Amino acid sequence: MERHASTLYSALAAKGHEIHVFTVPSDKRPRNDIQQGSLHVHFAANDHGSVNISLAFDIFNQENLIGEFDYVHTESVSLPHWRAKMVPKVAVTWHGIWYEIMHSKLFQELLSSSDGKLPGPMTELQEAMPRLVDEIKFFSSYKQHICISNSAGEALVNVYQIPQRNVHVILNGVDERKFVQDPKSGQKFRDKHGVPKNVSLVMGVAGRLVRDKGHPLLYEAFLTITKHHPGVFLLVAGSGPWGKRYAELGPSVKVLGELEPSELSEFYNAIDLFVNPTLRPQGLDLTLMESMHCATPVLTPNYPSITGTVVLNEGFGYTFAPNVASFVEAMELAIRDGTEVLQRNGMVCKNYALSMFKATKMASAYERFFLCMKNTRYCQYPLATDC
């Protein structure tokens, strides 16, 4: 979400809009406020480096006295619902809702129950329903709701009972200038990190190496793959507890650690297939969109948020149910198809990503939405032509 927010607000500021962001430094260290042209970043941290909501609201009120804001936008509950009631023309973008999080807890519990090795999050699952009920009750405190997937938008209307006219879907976008198809940079990346020349297929995964991102699932599935397909190689980009476990899989796996942002495009170009094993069916993972921009097909769970918005059909790659058997089956299919089919799928992904997941497209959609909030008399959002 941090990358999404930075991309969005920078793009809106570049269009000439005065944008004020109230946040904290990502490294949780004290920093001076930032002003870059039309972009103003106000830091409001507590002693632990987290957002001091009261301080942020005080700074907001001071700025609002200088020049009243035309609209207020909050990323999820950064502006708490009890304060949102006091602010006119508020819109909120939901990057994950408890209806989806509850499903995530369920999938994690099912995985734990099936392997019998890992303690399941049953307590968390039991706590999810009260959290969901509480969330449904306070969602009406926000006037306009933006979802980043079609399935989340449907949940807000059908489960949260938000009026259809107040629910909008604007897909996330990534910087199309940074994530591009570049086979040469991919080959250099392979050489730099010692990927063997004789491998038949290179899969890659990126992100935090933690449980809810599905790494227990990928570990077990790839362990099976290594027994039957020794020529398949896995590049693991990221850090976390499961990094050491992947290293146990032997020479078929290379753990890269965290990559610099400038290296991510090279990573996507270095692999034949991007694997996203997440157990979190909420929001949309930017890594899927980034890899697609680089003409790399994807292998991902068949959650409604993904299959309804990103991986529309088998031409984009492969989907699986969030269990080991289904995951292995999807991997086997990709291996059987081979690099030639994967390259064709990658071009389909690239063309789709360029039409749907561009930062410029996302910023334009938000721009028109906010302009409509400012002047509802002459503006309608969405239009019949929006899709």
Automatic annotation (TrEMBL):
Gene Ontology terms, MF aspect = glycosyltransferase activity
Domain annotation Glycosyltransferase subfamily 4-like N-terminal: ranges: 1-176
* Stored Pfam families: Glyco_transf_4 (PF13439), Glycos_transf_1 (PF00534)
Q: Which UniProt keywords apply?
A: Glycosyltransferase, Transferase
Q: Which InterPro entries match?
A: Glyco_trans_1, Glyco_trans_4-like_N
Keyword Lipid metabolism tagged: no
Domain Glycosyl transferase family intervals: 191-338
> What is the official name of this protein in its record?
Glycosyltransferase subfamily 4-like N-terminal domain-containing protein
